[in-house]
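RECORD TYPE: protein structure
NAME: ABC transporter domain-containing protein
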Amino acid sequence: MVDPVRTSDRAAGGVPPEGAPAPLLTMSAVSKAYGPVQACADVSMTLNRGEVLILVGENGAGKSTLMKILAGAISRDSGDVHIDGAPVDLGHPRRAMEAGIGIVHQELALAEDMSVVENLFLGRERTRAGLLDRAAMRAEAAELFAGLGVTINPDAEIASLSLGQRQMVEIARAVSLNSNILILDEPTASLESAARAQLFATLRGLQAKGVGIIFCSHHLEECLDIGDRVMVMRDGRKVADRDAAGLSVDDVIADMLGQEIGHQYPPRDRAPGAVVVATQGLHRAGHFDDVAITLRAGEVVGFGGLDGSGKVEVARALFGAEGFDAGTITLDGAPLPGGWNPARAMARGFAFLPGERKTQGLFLDESVAYNMSFAALRRLAGRLLSLGRERRAVADKITRLRVKTPSQTIAIRGLSGGNQQKVLVGRWMLREPRVLIFEEPTRGIDVHAKTEVYALIGELVAAGSAVLIVSSDLPELEGLCDRVYVFRRGRVAGELAGDAITQPAIAARATSDTNTAQRPSDAA
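PREDICTED:
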């Protein structure tokens, strides 16, 4: 039996009051199936001018399929789509673009070796007398960025821009195509707080001009900040469509899962053990300076701060993935040996999960089993490689970590982001690590998978591991960590512990030049 759709008064039925203008967009009873799998089932949706509609749901809920239909990437099996009351056929991306629909994907589609202006006008270059009119394109680009409230050099190479700036280039390109409907897929997944604030200011400006925005994200707190209405999908169907005002994160989670999720973060009622890793005076020219931190057994420590603050580079230096010029790193009180690198770090019990799991952590065309076991093959094999021992160890971790996969032999690219992340955790659990370093541990995964990853981190800490979380997700730092070091301009701007770890406190230390807060003692 299909759950009834939960609606607010304004959103009920998606039908405007009598005499009101037609919605900018109406999708009615849209369905799409892949063989026996019903990806979207009779989904109806409206979007008004100047409205931010939040579209949420777990991975596999159908929201990506619905947006692909709207963007012309795939064809619907049935149902109707109207823009400004007129029917439209969106069977191809160009037709969707001509209908005024723009999309900014999570994985940005920019040519990094080309300039900003070349990316903006790729395939539709401005010409005069048969020659490229670079001056006209630069002027148009400057006007676009001014309208969005951002400053970006049109001649800069894309590779030189921050992630936030690249995203603004994508949005500018969509706006330049006269898009009245803008779809944003996980727009803040890789953004720091300052870039998120800039993005939200830009979206508010587009709203004021009447652009309708569909905002797809797993970051529920910010969804409720930016959104006017929240539409929730589950198992291919729309299950809720309500005003954002007055909704809580727990309300949205309950709609997504069909049940209350309980506590998202594991309890922090643990007593940390001895110091395992410590740094003193750690320095790398142009990246970080005078960094002193400690990691204890049975404790979760967080690194917070803006993009470029040095937090990522310090974490990678601990693992030997990046170097340092001066200072010391100690393990169990003894300085690390010279030539510290990832291989030596792994041999001493370190583990590292990169933020870009698809490009830096996974072998996408290899099997689930290979991705989980390759870092522990010597441990599993002894003198001779035992395929049976490997399969049993992988099967044990798949069961323990609740990895959803039809087989350990299928290519890992077929798994959801949350299950891919759990495979990476399993990889290091096979090595029984003493120190685990996570970069953005829940980037791009849904709320239920986040909770499972947090539970796994809790289990690792309970077993005595020291865990370091490098995260741009302030709620994650607040809910998960025992202590948080906040970085600013390559230095530790403050250390927070226990109840002092709050989102405003982290943000203040990450952005303020004058921070007089006393740091807690690092004494064991």
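COMMENT: The chain has a mean pLDDT of 85.
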